[in-house]
Amino acid sequence: MESKKFSKPMSAQLVFDLVVSHLAIQGRRSIDEGGWCVYGEVGGLQCAVGCLLPADSLARRREGTVTRVQALGLLPSGLEPHVNMLSKLQLVHDRSPTKEDVIKDLYVIARTYNLNDRFIPLITKWEY
Question: ∠127-88-100 over CA atoms, to 5°?
């Protein structure tokens, strides 16, 4: 049975705002003991996509791409229209080594998807 979290359709703007706000608050990547990015980890950190997954989702215990999570049936249905954008947001989390890179990459995504970038300036730190 699908979790009710994000089971209803969401706008790209809402998804983007939720992820950017999450990254601004967290200020760092979600990684395991080996340094690999993960959707969610024991210390409570969550990646750009992990913050949108239900707390009890099996996807939180996995590594991999958004399309893999979708193929396994673990991506909430309300997020499915945004798989491409979520993939790009995940890459920002996984591969942007500095705060400046995170900000620059998020502005590119905002322009690509014609989104308001109002929350990007909230990112004031980034630990890679």
Answer: 35
